[in-house]
Amino acid sequence: MSTLRAVWDELLGLFVDDGSLAAAILVLVGLVAVLRDIGAIGGPVAGGLLFGGLVLILLENVRRGARR
Amino acid sequence: MLIHDLTAILSAFLASLVEVVEAFTIVLAVGVTSGWRPALLGTGAGLAALVLLVAVLGPLLNAVPLEAMQGVIGLLLLLFGMRWLRKAVLRAAGRIPLHDEEAAFDQERKLLRGRPEFAAGTVAFQGVLLEGVEVVFIVIAVGTGRGLLGAASLGAAAAAVLVLATGFLLHRPLSLVPENTLKFLVGVMLSAFGTFWLGESVGAAWPGADFSLLPMALGFLFAAIIGVRIAEARI
Fold first, then answer.
1. Residue B228's closest chain A neighbor by CA?
2. A4 in a domain, yes or no?
3. What is the ipTM of this complex?
4. B159, CA 20 to 30 Å: which among A7, A67, B128, B174?
């Protein structure tokens, strides 16, 4: 049972260790998907928004991580 | 060979290298401290459990439509890649300590001293299983979406052979492997891979199609280097 628990924790830990990083990525992806779905933005803008947003999220998260 | 094939092989190779080195350290610690019988039995049981995992997951993955699969795998790759990249940036800036394989080896040996053979075998089993699960995920993640499972498996297998052969010759923890540099590079590649696939699944268009992976990876690399400067300066 403890091995299964450890495997589960390891799997979860693969994707999330700083919750705010994962949450910010999910919010950005959701936003891009919705904007694209309602036709508010085109494909290339969606790509730029996704990539640019991810870069900003990384930098902001690193900045906060370094100040802790 | 397409850029996707190369990226899949290289990502799987580099990421697996990191994980196999960690598993090797644990098995070596068990072997040296408690004997090679529990170390090898535990390793064998761990590998058997991994084969079982792949046998169960494989058919399940085939049942999922490709488009949905690309979205899910893209998101997981992105979460995984950005997590590694963030950690690698903070480590490169000296904000969190580097992973030390020699220290991990000594720590493992300390914990194993006086333990019965069965418990030592369990440590080897868990080490192989837990690090192996990561390798399985990486291979599935970089290989599934575009039918590159074979290429990704090849990359992971090459990493395992390289680590085991080197470890067999040296008979000590592979502390010279530049783990943080590898994590930095893999984080960049997996973030680019994940962004590309996830973008495709939410309707983003990438100029140059597959070839946009390269500038995207360079963009993440550039951002990560800036991130190191920001973390060093604690702006």
1. A62
2. no
3. 0.88
4. A7
